[in-house]
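Please fill in the sequence for the structure shown.

STRUCTURE ENCODING:
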């Protein structure tokens, strides 16, 4: 508790005379400034022999690879997708720089979540999973089509955070993790015009954890209920989906029309016009709410799968690991 100091009383830690202007804690005849408690906690966490969760997190953040190192690592495990690799590497590197900066600064920098747009099988999950494995941060995948608002049958948004904690060493470790929510286009309000609980309601429910807040989780095992509080401010959320039909929305916005006729070249083919021009207004027309779009300001488009890329995955390129042909030879 804090009480008015008497004359000649000083902080037991720094030996500075107590002042009413600064907060302190007293116990019996001992006193300590609140700032001294904070400084001592930071000192303990920074010691190499410290085994507390905060030290593990600080060590993890301090060793975050650069964007170029992340890109080089992706090149070893994922074929193609050059632009997506660069964008994701910069996004992830800047995110953890921000987390480390916010640990020791009064000026807080807001996080930047992202949306991955690409057909099924283009490598959205592989990209993020590869980065998370390199960084050593907890990583979970959720399916947006299985999520329902609270009190409805299905997976709640809280289950995403519970899975993240289960894959983490501690709550602090989980608070620096990565969450990938796939099939996000399946909760579009345009695709769920007759069902509120699978459209806008799910987007609103996801906002609760994405915005950066403290979420209280309760779990009951064998009749005993345990609670945990997790802060989502430093969790990187990435959503992804195929967004089938969004090319037509882009074409309408850019006044490009589909030609008609047997011998007319298709200027809006999927190969020629991948989703490289998707903007916030396109996602809004697709059925994502403005509030949801605002929490995911970065749009990363993945190149479409071609025969050449498919052969690179099956037969392999010299610089890419994890090819299928050597795997099948090994188990044959």
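FILLED IN BY: designer on duty
SEQUENCE:
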């Amino acid at each position: 508790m804090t009480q008015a100091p008497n004359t000649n009383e000083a902080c037991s830690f720094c030996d500075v005379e107590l002042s009413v202007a600064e907060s302190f804690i007293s116990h019996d005849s001992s006193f300590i400034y609140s700032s001294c408690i904070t400084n001592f906690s930071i000192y303990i966490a920074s010691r190499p022999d410290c085994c507390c969760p905060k030290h593990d997190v600080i060590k993890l953040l301090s060793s975050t690879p650069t964007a170029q190192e992340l890109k080089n690592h992706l090149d070893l495990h994922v074929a193609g997708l050059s632009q997506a690799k660069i964008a994701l590497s910069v996004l992830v590197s800047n995110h953890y720089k921000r987390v480390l900066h916010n640990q020791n600064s009064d000026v807080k920098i807001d996080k930047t979540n992202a949306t991955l747009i690409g057909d099924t099988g283009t490598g959205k999950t592989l990209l993020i999973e590869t980065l998370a494995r390199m960084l050593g941060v907890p990583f979970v995948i959720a399916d947006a089509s299985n999520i329902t608002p609270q009190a409805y049958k299905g997976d709640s948004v809280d289950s995403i955070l519970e899975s993240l904690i289960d894959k983490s060493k501690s709550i602090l470790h989980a608070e620096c993790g990565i969450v990938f929510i796939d099939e996000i286009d399946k909760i579009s309000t345009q695709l769920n015009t007759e069902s509120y609980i699978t459209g806008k309601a799910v987007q609103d429910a996801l906002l609760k954890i994405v915005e950066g807040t403290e979420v209280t989780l309760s779990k009951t095992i064998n009749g005993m209920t345990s609670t945990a509080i997790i802060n989502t401010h430093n969790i990187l959320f990435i959503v992804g989906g195929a967004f089938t039909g969004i090319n037509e929305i882009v074409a309408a916005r850019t006044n490009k029309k589909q030609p008609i006729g047997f011998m007319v070249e298709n200027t809006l083919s999927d190969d020629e016009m991948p989703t490289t021009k998707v903007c916030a207004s396109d996602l809004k027309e697709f059925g994502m709410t403005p509030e949801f779009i605002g929490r995911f300001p970065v749009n990363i488009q993945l190149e479409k799968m071609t025969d050449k890329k498919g052969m690179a995955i099956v037969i392999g390129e010299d610089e890419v690991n994890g090819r299928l042909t050597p795997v099948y030879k090994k188990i044959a």
